[in-house]
Amino acid sequence: MADHVQSLARGLAVIRAFSAAQPELTLSQVARATGLSRAAARRFLITLADLGYVRGDGRLFALTPRVLELGYAYLSALSLPEVADPHLERLAAEVRESASVAVLDGEDVVYVARVATARIMRVSISIGTRFPAYCTSMGRVLLAALPPGELEAYLGRARLRRLTSHTIVLPAALRAELDEVRGRGWAMVDQELEEGLRSIAAPIRDRAGRTVAAVNVSTHATRTSLQAVRRDLLPPLLATAGRIEADLASLHA
Asked: The pTM is what?
């Protein structure tokens, strides 16, 4: 076909090579799955990485949430919003607070599912909203799950700005906080993104135990004390994360 753009078709074939069953691929696997030579596959992967759609550590490559911009291919592979939505509705109804799911994209968290009960932030949150990962509960859960090398790279490039008087801005202090998050399995942030906003988050893991997203509940500091957040919001939040994980596992079994 005269109007067929072969390079575009090949680039999309590289993206489609990744799936829920194979979220990470080597260069050889990409070449084999697409029928491209190793040299051609490498050029496409480098281009997609430069554009932010693919990440790699030198050996393994994977899609990033930026593929959302190409028709939600990333989330379609995971079916994450469809799986999470009913659980978020149940959680929000139980605790009477807003609940969300987000993924990590570069230095930000990106909201992919949300059930809001009341607006408690100055900005309106919707699907696709981005916030800095370092000062959000979901961001800390996702950062704590990064391999050590990726976390150090993040800490080396992230601009830790003081958004409120509570925001952690020292890399050493953030690293220590992430160690605690990793150890206890959840994160709580008290008014670091915005004054008055408290949130608590838990990881969502795939069948292999890898953290693929985070789920959180947010509340206003005048309405819910830190003790109440741990006592009243954490147990249903952890239960919700477990139910989402179970549904994801059965979907991809």
From this structure: 0.70
